[in-house]
């Protein structure tokens, strides 16, 4: 059993891949072995996580996810706990593995009840796993709601019930606005699934653990991956500022110079050799506390040798500069208003596609609404399958895409999407996206290929937020300064 952290490197398997692995493994093992291993793993994690729990409620669904819960109940009962099981199954329609576990739970003396206990110290959600086919309703929906509204911790078996394991979309929202900060943990079985790590998956699952049930996952094709912590890059003693490249920040229209300056500060602190601030607001002044930044008229910059970070605070004025940026920049990071301008202009879309055909490294850093505009769809469709949306965008424009949000997805043509696990909701504030664009720019200027630059910058950006002291407000300017306080 392994805990997944922001540093974990792992393949992610969708439901189809997981089913293939499950069938292959089951064919080589005695009947019911996988479910017995699954139930034992659930019981072990429950005992380790809530060793003092006296009242354990296990809510079991009609399929094999419920079977895992029944098996866990038998294991807990044998270890001196007294779980109460509420089971939504029908004895005539129960699949064979779950039926065997039902009999084992009954034989072990597990208590069954029609409705949840009055109170509980730990709830185990074994209602639905990867076989969820529709939104929970009736008793299942009520049990989920009371489980997640309660103060007691919730352990989800395989996936939180109601969550689409492939996409992280909740088929219904069984999780009401939190009255309590309910502790959540999820034990993913056999494989890790993409939906646990993006969209609503992270909130629904909480801390994720994996038990591979002793099976080898090499027989199926992963759908995505967790890229984990990037490698440390040593700086050669003999290197110089030219070794780390030039970054040109192009944006900062009147009233929005701050966004461009945040990106510039972030590029500088992330290690760019030189950073030029090409501000659209000709009257804006540089921050005197950051004398390393060089102020330039954007039209005067020779972008052919530079990494252009374009769009932060760009406003409508950025449109006029985009044809030159897209045609000439050696590397480009395209953010915010530049993305919106491209979405609205067919000629700019052609220029962006042409960059892709010329294999000129480009990273797009949309949030879901910006991604929806570029894909000519709406935010709900993007959020319904974030890895797929990011991949579509990457393929459409021949660019690396950083689809921001909970579980940022990084996609590139010809690669599997990866999901980043560093970062937290403290990044949900103005300017943090500008800081990220600058960090991606610095990583590209240092010579990293665009997908690696994007993955590394996204990870570091999130990691800075994870490291930030809980009692200090995290501002975008502190983030841009690399976490310097
Ligand atoms: N086999 C093994 O050895 C192993 C299995 N493992 C475990 O099995 C899980 C997959 O099991 P599964 O395929 O039986 O699917 P599962 O998630 O239990 O749901 C299907 C059942 O729920 C029903 N149902 C669906 N939606 C519903 C809704 N909204 N509301 C109400 N009912 C709904 C659906 O009914 P139907 O749609 O057919 O009407 C069907 O009866 C996997 O996640 C893992 O935990 C692992 O331990 C590895 C070893
Ligand atoms: K579940």
From TrEMBL:
Cofactor names from the entry are: K(+); Mg(2+)
Residues recorded as binding (6S)-NADPHX, renumbered to this chain, are 64-68, 129-135, 158, 259, 313, 367, 434
Q: What is its EC number?
A: 4.2.1.136, 5.1.99.6
Q: Any idea where the YjeF N-terminal domain is?
A: 18-221
Q: Where along the chain is AMP bound?
A: 404-408, 433
| YjeF C-terminal domain boundaries | 224-485
| Cleavable signal peptide | none
InterPro entries, per database record: CARKD (IPR000631), Nnr (IPR030677), Ribokinase-like (IPR029056), YjeF_N_dom (IPR004443), YjeF_N_dom_sf (IPR036652)
Q: What does this protein do?
A: Catalyzes the dehydration of the S-form of NAD(P)HX at the expense of ADP, which is converted to AMP. Together with NAD(P)HX epimerase, which catalyzes the epimerization of the S- and R-forms, the enzyme allows the repair of both epimers of NAD(P)HX, a damaged form of NAD(P)H that is a result of enzymatic or heat-dependent hydration. Bifunctional enzyme that catalyzes the epimerization of the S- and R-forms of NAD(P)HX and the dehydration of the S-form of NAD(P)HX at the expense of ADP, which is converted to AMP. This allows the repair of both epimers of NAD(P)HX, a damaged form of NAD(P)H that is a result of enzymatic or heat-dependent hydration.
Instruction: Say which family it is in.
Output: Belongs to the NnrE/AIBP family.
**Can you name this protein?**
Bifunctional NAD(P)H-hydrate repair enzyme
Organism, by scientific name, is: Variovorax robiniae
Which gene holds the coding sequence for this protein? nnrD
